[in-house]
Amino acid sequence: MAPKLIHDFTSGDLLCADCNTVIGDRLIDSRSAWRSTAKISRQAEEDARMLMSLQTIAAQAHDTTSSTSSQSDSGNNSPVSAGKDAILSRALRSRTHGRAAAQRHERQERNLVRAFSEISTACATMDLPRIIDDTARDLYKRVDAENLHRGKNIDAIIATCIFLACRQKSLPRTFKEICALTKVPRKDIGRTFKFLKEKLGAEAGPMSSDDLMARFCANLSLLSSAQECAVMLNQMAKQRDTLAGKSPVSIAGACIYMASHLVGQPRDAKVISHVAGVSEVTIKNSYKLLFADRHQLVSEEMLRVSPMASIEFLPTP
To answer: What band does 172 get if pLDDT is binned at 50, 70 and 90?
Structure first.
């Protein structure tokens, strides 16, 4: 009967299972664990060799750097190396500057698109013709090109460009109308208007009460007879200097107030002040001057504008 043998891999012996007699020793463990250990050992050796190679390369790089630094300190730089460094430095600076310039250009484009969009929206809301839109855009483009908007309120600049465009194209709008449209305070528009007028050398264009008369009368739902009478009153007042020194808006408001009563289509001074953008007191003070000169201002031709027209309809201030 063959003996039953046991492999003791711990001690490396071959034993008899019945009597524990050592039959053989120095056995080699052929199990997977041994193979794994051998594989790990080989990997460790490879890692060690790689680490040594890296240390050698690092030492060589350190020696080369120290040598280059020493040559630089002693003024013995290699011309080729110095040239390469200069070229690399210029390339990096050029790339950085190019990227910054592209970003600035992109920001400017975005700002222009936003400004043009707001200008077009405002002009459409006020039912202004295309020429006003184009002129306002050109003005803003000049502001952007000369960097005049730096540190300024962009909304105020947009509002002022629209205001200037209206004046230049003989379709003036009052400060109040522009303020109501753009939600920019009148003080900011006035200050920006003076600044841009000076910096751009832009002609503001004259604004007279005649330019405002038709729009104010339309907003007050007055008939053409009242508008015609108001225009004639304005012309007579200019000839006689009755309202000398008054603003065009005040003159227009006062003439409309007087004409509306004269032809039997009375409008309250408070309503007119809301449309014209001046105070009720301002309109009434200007009307006092017109009323005092009424017999010279109101002509027979003016009374023939409407069959109901009468100087007796004029309210006493």
So the answer is: confident
Q: Look at residue 214 in the predicted model and tell me its pLDDT.
A: 87
For 42-55, write each residue's pLDDT tens digit.
655 665 565 565 45
> Residue 74: pLDDT above 50?
no
What's residue 272's pLDDT? 94
Q: Which distant-in-sequence residues (6+ apart) come within 8 Å of 17 by Cβ?
A: 3, 4, 5, 6
Q: How far apart are CA 254 and CA 251, in angstroms?
A: 5
CA–CA separation, 160 and 301 (whole Å): 41
What Cα–Cα distance (Å) separates residue 262 from each residue in 138, 226, 256, 284?
44, 8, 10, 15
pLDDT at residue number 208: 77
Question: For residue 65, how many C-alpha atoms fall within 13 Å in the half-sphere facing its CB?
Answer: 6
How many residues in the chain?
317
DSSP 224-250: HHHHHHHHHHHHHHHHHTTTTT--HHH
Contact criterion met (CB below 8 Å) for 176 and 186: yes
Report the C-alpha gap between 167 and 178 in whole angstroms.
12
3-state secondary structure of 202: coil
What tokens does 155 get?
A: 């909304």
Question: In sequence order, which residues have a C-beta less than 8 Å from that of residue 250 and are 6 or more positions away?
Answer: 243, 276, 278, 282, 283, 286
Q: Is the model's pLDDT at 254 over the cut of 60?
A: yes
